[in-house]
Design a protein that fits this description.
single chain, 88 residues, alpha+beta, three-stranded antiparallel β-sheet, GyrI-like small molecule binding domain-containing protein
Length: 88
């Protein structure tokens, strides 16, 4: 899981702080809704990848852009999957 932060955090034995990540040649699904239904967006993204015969080279990375504890249906999450640039 990737989580954006607005300052540097010390790494611990439970997580690593990455100042920057770079996923080249990725497809992304932008999801707005209750986190419990995020799997539906992931399934649609996987179907998109399969229909276009793309070759994933990473797992899906979730980036939480917005959370709302009072209205979780307003949560915003982007899901990134790195795709092979090779055309075979």
């Amino acid at each position: 899981m990737l989580m954006p932060v607005d300052n540097t955090i010390n790494s611990t034995d439970k997580f690593d702080f990455k100042n920057q990540i770079k996923i080249v040649n990725a497809v992304v699904a932008s999801y707005i809704g209750h986190p419990m239904r995020l799997q539906d967006a992931c399934n649609q993204l996987n179907q998109y990848i399969m229909e276009r015969r793309l070759q994933p080279i990473t797992v899906g990375y979730n980036v939480t852009k917005k959370t709302d504890m009072l209205s979780p249906e307003n949560t915003e999450i982007d899901v990134y999957v790195g795709i092979s640039p090779n055309i075979l």
